[in-house]
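name: query_chain
kind: protein
chains: 1
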Amino acid sequence: MHGLINRSIQNYFCANYGQRLWADVAARAGLDFTEFEAMLTYPDHVTPAVLEAVCAVLDRPRAEVMEDVGTFLVAQPGYEAVRRLLRFGGVSFSDFLQSLDDLPDRTRLALSELHLPPVELREDPDGQYSLICEAPLVGYGYLMMGVLRAMADDYGALVLLEHCGRSEGAEALKIILVEAEFSEGRRFELGARA
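structure:
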């Protein structure tokens, strides 16, 4: 797994619970180091081991931890690049949802070595949406819920999100856009400031 994923989990944990407790996570996960290097690749078993250790140290279920990590990736000030990448999906939350299918490809344009699992948005006849997240990592759907929740806030949209379970390596989310302009969203400018 790409080190950026592991480093993001580490950054989330350290920002919320501290470096000292992170050392407990690293030990419990069987790591012989405490700092992930963002540009390295790690064996696939490392990420699930780290997530299990985080859940054990915090005594929280994986679903909650993954959703928190997803929210952290968008809402944390140090992760502005992630927010910018997501905001290029459109000027409204509906546009953003419609662009989710392209997210893995957009991510590879920014960082060619990072391969995000495919996601597929389906619009239901009643105007609701389903997001299918194909991922070997259990809980990826919950991570996407955190991302969607933070992006809805970013756009000022009111949404209801529900995780509908995991089947055959994919997790499904139900998305109900209650009100597109519920509140004032966060400011976003296309050009980066120097």
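note: The mean pLDDT is 89.
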